[in-house]
Design brief:
alpha+beta; 2 domains; 4 helices
């Protein structure tokens, strides 16, 4: 038995295990980041109910944000029930917000 060869093989095995561990850690970190984003979205959407930004509502029902906004512009949905404009505290910015429960009823 050649000790140098054994040590070399052990070293290569450790390097390979380290590379695999690094890849696993990278994949797990990515998944944790994705899940953290989903949890944040759920918190912002009141548990997937109520009023929320049009982009988020569209995502929840499997639509693209621009498609939902186009339907709103084309008056496919009732203003005040399914959607409405929201302003900031200063009253300057108007954005479209959507009631997810009502949107689900009409799509």
């Amino acid at each position: 038995m050649n000790t140098a060869e054994d040590l070399g093989q052990s070293f290569l095995s450790l390097i390979h295990q380290s590379e695999e561990s690094a890849q696993v850690i990278k994949l797990l970190t990515k998944k944790v980041d994705e899940l953290s984003g989903e949890v944040k979205e759920l918190k912002e959407s009141n548990g997937d109910q109520g009023w929320m930004k049009a982009e988020l509502a569209a995502k929840r029902v499997g639509m693209k944000g621009p498609a939902l906004r186009q339907r709103i512009r084309n008056k496919k949905y009732i203003e005040g029930t399914v959607w409405r404009h929201s302003t900031t505290g200063e009253g300057r910015t108007r954005q479209i917000i959507v009631n997810l429960a009502e949107l689900r009823k009409v799509i």
